[in-house]
Amino acid sequence: MEYFGLSEIRSNLVFVSGVGEAAFDEIVEIKAGEVKSRIGRVIQIDGDVAVILVFEGARELTLEKTSVKFTGRLLEIGLTEEILGREFDGLSRPRDGLGRVFAKEYREISGVALNPVERIYPRNYIHTGFSAIDCLATLIRGQKLPIFSCDGLPHDKLAAQIATQAKISGDEKFAVVFAAMGIGHDAAEFFRRTFIESGQYERTVMFLNMANDPPTERVATPRFALTAAEYLAYDCGYHVLVILTDMTAYAEALREISSVRGEIPGRKGFPGYMYSDLASLYERAGIRKGKAGSITQIPILTMPGEDITHPIPDLTGYITEGQIVLDRALHLKGIFPPINVLPSLSRLMKDGIGENFTTKEHPAIAAKLFAAYAGVGDVRSLASVIGEEDLAETDKIFLKFGRRFEEEFLHQNENRTMVQTLELAQRLLQCQTSA
């Protein structure tokens, strides 16, 4: 059905009255004279009034000259294994100049969270090449492990290196789905160049929503990415690592849409349903019974005001299985990646390491490193009060260990194997005990 004329335009929302049949989430085509046609999604139906979210924004649309065609379809993505090595915009349109994708099938992007009955408990690990993660907050296949960052910290560089260095043991197929929301053109070029120069571009699918794209596109971008990941994992047998950055941009787009709709705000102005909305994304990770592949998620978010209790990291922490926390003090020391291992953890780590997956010494090494570095924090607090010169000799040993741990273990420019990481950890622990 096609309707002519709008009853109201409110930011990126348009209202169509007199609608006889419309479905929630239905896709519409919007035309207005010489203005390029756009697509929108029905987000609310109130009687005979349909509220439509226009993905490309409602600028240049007019009440009288706009036509709205209800397609009867939901938002879909064309899927084929050939999407590997391709780059798309936030609405899955090719942006690499290689033309359209000849899809084997089309699938709705809304998706569903994995049924707990169909889940297989995550086991085995994904190698990232970073000692702080591989040894102390190990990423497990099928896990969702977010990275909490702040403005000015190198989370983009960390995300790019994880995407290019990540691998699994054995000969199983591995792929990366990379979705970026609200990034600048310089960041997009950085990601593209990093993937190409590392030789990993052909195993990667990129979905890039730019900072100058309408924020309304950002609510769809991670759903396109996760639908592509589900196809690669459960239909093509890949173990898929999904990196979503920056979830703060996604949540702020969600808040903007909620505000325009006139909904009652929750904490910090974010909608009250943000928890369930984030869960609808995060819970699409996992391993499904009877399927060869898996989906592992690394959502990356910048904490507004460096506040870990802010609703975005707070709700993310409730839904996911741990967190990796980047620290500004370590960054100022020149440490990369600046991972603060004390508040960082992987709740599934214990079931994906050890004799059957890494080495039987791994759990004990990780526990000893945690304990030793926790002691460093206590000694540094004492030194700030009485001065380092007046510390006991054992306390000075802790300070020396802390410096070596940060400069040799946390800081790295190379891609370390798990064996190299654990050998380095053992050397540091031996130096501390022998001293």
In words, what does this structure look like?
- By secondary structure, this protein is an alpha/beta fold.
- It has three domains: 2-74, Elongation Factor Tu (Ef-tu), domain 3 (Beta Barrel); 77-351, Rossmann fold (3-Layer(aba) Sandwich); 362-434, Bovine Mitochondrial F1-ATPase, ATP Synthase Beta Chain, Chain D, domain3, CATH 1.10.1140.10.
- Helices cover 33% and strands 24% of the residues.
- It has an eight-stranded mixed β-sheet with strand order 9-13-12-14-15-11-16-17, sandwiched between helices. A seven-stranded antiparallel β-sheet has the order 1-7-4-5-6-3-2, with no helix packed on it. It has a two-stranded antiparallel sheet with strand order 8-10.
Protein topology:
Elements (H helix, E strand, L loop, with lengths): L1 E3 L3 E3 L2 E4 L9 E7 L2 E12 L2 E6 L11 E9 L1 E4 L6 E4 L15 E4 L22 H6 L10 E3 L5 H11 L8 E10 L1 H13 L6 E7 L10 H15 L3 E7 L1 H14 L13 H9 L11 E9 L8 H9 L2 E5 L1 H5 L6 E8 L15 H25 L6 H18 L7 H17 L1
Parallel strand pairs: 9-13, 11-15, 11-16, 12-13, 12-14, 14-15
Antiparallel strand pairs: 1-7, 2-3, 3-6, 4-5, 4-7, 5-6, 8-10, 16-17
Helix pairs in contact: 2-3, 9-10, 9-11, 10-11
